[in-house]
Design a protein that fits this description.
The chain is an all-beta fold. The protein contains 1 helix and 15 strands; from the N terminus they run E-E-H-E-E-E-E-E-E-E-E-E-E-E-E-E. The chain has a 7-stranded mixed sheet. Strands 9-13-12 form a 3-stranded antiparallel sheet, with no helix packed on it. The two termini are 34 Å apart.
Amino acid sequence: MISKEKPVIESLTVHSDYTKIVFSKYMKPDSISSLRLLDAKGKNINYEIEHDNNLTDGAGTNYAREYLLRYQDNTVLEAGSSCKLISDGTIKSYADIAMEPDEIDVEVEKNIQIIAPDEVTVKMGESLDIPVYIANNDENLGFTAISNFEDIVSVEKIEKDYVRISAEIWGTADIVVNIPEKGIEK
């Protein structure tokens, strides 16, 4: 079934070194490059587009809903400053439906990051406290942690600066740390 509804930007988050855009529909990546991003002084920001390359149609055409615009030329926007995203109406969904032209003013957010080890080892039957730090956490945001295989490794306890995991049996599992309010995970 093909949706003829015009796509819109569902979510727009501007950080000092990249912009994340989530659309209401799967979009044609080659049409995204028509977006213009201007800094507080009205200067055009050059960027490179990143998106998931896994979803394709029968003809091999790629579509995505989420896009990152990574700034080039060593551009870094100051947190708290404003910028503008301009769409000229040529951005198209998978159904070839164009988005309405739009100009969106947005404030540059601080880059909130989860800092934690990428890999840890815990022996079967033992527990381990994994340090977790939320960088630029002025909002005092909390985090969650879940195991993708609770039978192998379970999350016992979550504190403000660590997660305690317990190895139930031998094997490998991922622990995903997430800041739900910001959609950030590691």
